[in-house]
Amino acid sequence: MISPAQHIIIALVAMVGMAANSIAGGGTLLTFPALVGLGVPSLVANATSTVALWPGSLTSMYGYRQELRGARVIALAFTLPSILGGLLGGILLTLTTQRQFDHIVPWLVGFATLVFTLQRPILAALRRWSLAHPARENPASHRPPLGFMISHFFVSIYGGYFGGGAGMIILASLGLIGLTNIHQMNGLKNYFAITFNLVAIVAFIWKGLVDWPIAATMALGSIVGGWAGSTIAQRVPQQWVRGSVTVIGFSAAAWLFTHRPH
Question: 3-class SS at 28?
Fold first, then answer.
């Protein structure tokens, strides 16, 4: 059991994590290591962080409602792969032992941080590719190719299992489909994350992996962070946030590597 002062700290971490998601992404790379650092077992920390950030993600997605209306076809096409993949990822986590996850999680955090760090150059490359290969029709109004739906299923498995870095992979996939409106892409990314995390959460609850007092405290912080994120995004330079998240992510991965059981 953590102290009242630690509850305040994790609420603030969740608020900052959701604000970071609104500005540049990488919120999980803040909340998950914070819980592990407080002594929460990594399996419980992963499940609890997912539950706690979900309400904030819902609040944040509300700001993209106009953009999502223009991409209803893609949203609907990817909904079933998101549900199935997220459920499978959540079930896989419930089948993973604490010792196994302690060995896996440093690699997951390191991978997620690397993907986050490479986000801007990857998106820039996708924009250059889209300019060189302009779509003949609005890609947001057409059903995506089957191959993208299959790949999204596997991304959703990863998202349901851990989630860090899944948003960047989704953005890259949407860029390859031909989407260029970053606000529309972010809206779709948030919708898919909310979908696959919701079904994964069902598996976490069924297995009893959620620390509800901590999740409730963090959820309050994440809601505030998600609501205020759009305002903060206009005032805080992205490079500051990205640099901070990158340093914290790689530091957390290194710490998890050195403290994992042998």
Answer: helix
